[in-house]
């Protein structure tokens, strides 16, 4: 298996439209940027404790209500309750709702899905403010960019004719 390099990540263009995708996810789900990025951090951890949350929030703006809000809005759920004898603390995980949102963001970044462009599924499209109108234009541009996920892997031995055929096919 080949080791992933910085060049491979650049070629994937994962972060090309990250800002627009993040703005869409936050606006349509009632989250702020720090909440969303913290949830992505927790999703990578799988299971975590309240102490892990405290460690994870050091790089974000301070919000002493964040933990309770994420629990109340069911972005975080208890995976194992404490019982005061053998389990001294709760263990948490991100909810199914959160996993779905993060997966949708990844699929959009890879070009497998588009950002929803109907008013019913995207609050930004309504254009209530100037910022929403600008973001709407950006969303249409992201959805038009079909080259945001094209990855070409060549086997060890590639013939020149095969490369010419592939270039003709991709253009």
How is this fold's topology laid out?
Elements: H1 6-12, H2 18-29, H3 33-45, E1 47-48, H4 50-56, H5 66-72, E2 76-80, E3 91-94, H6 96-110, H7 130-144, H8 160-170
Antiparallel strand pairs: 1-3, 2-3
Helix pairs in contact: 2-6, 2-7
Notes on the protein architecture:
The protein has helices at 6-12, 18-29, 33-45, 50-56, 66-72, 96-110, 130-144, 160-170; strands spanning 47-48, 76-80, 91-94. The protein is built from eight helices and three strands. It has one domain (6-170): Arc Repressor Mutant, subunit A (Orthogonal Bundle), CATH 1.10.10. The radius of gyration is 20 Å and the shape is globular. The longest helix has 15 residues, at 96-110. It starts with 5 loop residues before the first helix and ends with a helix.
How many domains in all? 1
Mean pLDDT rating: 86
Highest-level CATH class: Mainly Alpha
User: CATH topology, anyone?
Assistant: Arc Repressor Mutant, subunit A
Strand runs, count: 3
Structural class based on helices, strands and sheet pairing: mainly alpha
Low-confidence stretches: 158-163
CATH architectural name: Orthogonal Bundle
Q: How large is the share of residues in beta strands?
A: 5-15%
State the distance separating the first and last CA atoms. Answer: 29 Å
Largest sheet: 3 strands, antiparallel
**Helix count, DSSP H or I runs of 4 or more residues:** 8
What percentage of residues falls in helices of 4 or more residues? 40-55%
Rounded to an integer in angstroms, the radius of gyration calculated over CA atoms is 20 Å
SSE order, one letter for each helix or strand: HHHEHHEEHHH
The neighbouring-strand order within the major sheet is 1-3-2
